[in-house]
Amino acid sequence: MASNNPIFRGSTGLTAIADSEALNYSDRLTYTQVFRGPKAASFTFIDLHYKGSIWSLSIYGSSALNFVVDSATLEPERGGIAKVTVNYTLIDGLTVPVDQFNLSPFEDNPPIEKNPYFASLTNADLQKAKASYEAASAAGQTSVNNIIATVTHSALITALVNKWLKGEQTYYLAAMKFQHTLHSYSQPTAVLGGFRQTPTGSFSSAAPGSMSWLRLADELSWDNGVWKLTRTWLGATGTPGWDSDLYP
Q1: DSSP class of 111
Q2: Are 104 and 178 in a shared domain?
Q3: What residues make up the domain containing 215?
Q4: pLDDT 10s per residue in the chain (248 long)?
Q5: 3-state secondary structure 198-214
Q6: Are residues 189 and 219 in the same domain?
Q7: Are residues 70 and 185 in the same domain?
Q8: Does a structural domain hold residue 138?
Q9: Boundary-marking domain end, from 141, 165, 189
C-alpha cells in the first residue's frame, strides 16, 4: 500500500507540543501527535492529513511504520497561531479484526398451496382450485365446483379454496440469513451472487443443512486501512427450495 512522505515539523513551521505524542494499545495501536504553529502552516498540514490518508512515521526511534489517519482537528488560537491534533492508527504488522458472523431468521411466507398439507394436490388440481376461486360469477363457480367434486382430491381442493376465501393466502415458514464478515489489509474480490450455494468458510457448520441456500451479492467497504467483506446467503426451507432453473 503506497504511503505519503511524512511532513517534517521543521519544514512546516509547526512545533510539537511537549508530551503530546501518545500511544494507546487497545484492539489496534493508535498514535496521537499535537502541533502548534502559524495558522497558514497549520491549514496546509491538516489539508494533507485527511481521514484515510496513509503516512510513514518513525516513533520513539522505531523504523518507519505505516499509519492511517483516523481524524485531524485544527483549533485557532490568539496571535495567528493554531493547534493541530492528528490521530493515527497503525496498519503495519497487526492482525486484522476477527471475523464476524450472524445467523438470523426471517419470515418466508410462501403461498399456502405450498404447505405440506396440500402436497398431494397436482398442478391440474391447483388449476381447478384457482378457477373456482377466481370465477367471475356464481354460475361459473358452481360449474367448476361440480367438476371438482368428481376428482380424487376434491375435499382437499375445496379446503384450499375455502382458505383463500377466508383470506389465508400465505403461511409462516422460517427462513434464515447467514452472514460472514471478513477483514483484510488487501482488497478482496466481491461476488455478485445470484446462485445456489451452501455457506462456506468460518462458521459454515452453523448453517442448517436442511435448507436450500442462495448466495447474495457481497458487500465491500474500506475504512482506515482495513477492507471489510460481508458475504450473505439466504436459506429457504420446504420443497423445492430455490428454483434450479432460475438460480444455477
Answers
A1: B
A2: yes
A3: 100-108+172-236
A4: 444 544 334 445 777 776 667 777 766 778 898 988 888 889 989 998 988 888 888 877 777 888 889 899 999 988 888 999 999 988 776 667 778 999 999 888 889 998 889 989 999 999 999 999 988 888 888 888 889 888 899 899 999 999 999 999 999 888 999 999 998 878 899 999 999 999 998 899 998 888 899 999 999 998 766 789 999 999 988 666 788 888 88
A5: CCCCCCHHHCCCCCEEE
A6: yes
A7: no
A8: yes
A9: 165
The answer on 68 and 18 residing in a single domain is yes
Q: Are 158 and 131 in contact (CB under 8 A)?
A: no
Grid cell at residue 159: 379446503
Say if residues 85 and 163 touch (Cβ distance below 8 Å): no
Instruction: Please tell me the distance from the alpha carbon of residue 240 to that of residue 110, in angstroms, as a whole number.
Output: 12
For residues 30 and 141, membership in a common domain is answered with no
Amino acid at 188: P
Domain for residue 4, yes or no? no
| Sequence letter at residue 167 | G
CA distance linking residue 114 with residue 236, whole number of Å: 13
| Whether residue 83 is found in the same domain as residue 42 | yes
- What contacts 178, CB < 8 A, 6 or more positions away? 102, 103, 199, 206, 207, 213, 232, 233, 234, 235
Q: Specify whether the CB–CB gap between 65 and 90 falls below 8 A.
A: yes
Q: Which three cell numbers, joined as nine digits, stand for 245?
A: 432453473
Q: Which residue has the cell 379454496?
A: 161
Domain count, the chain: 3
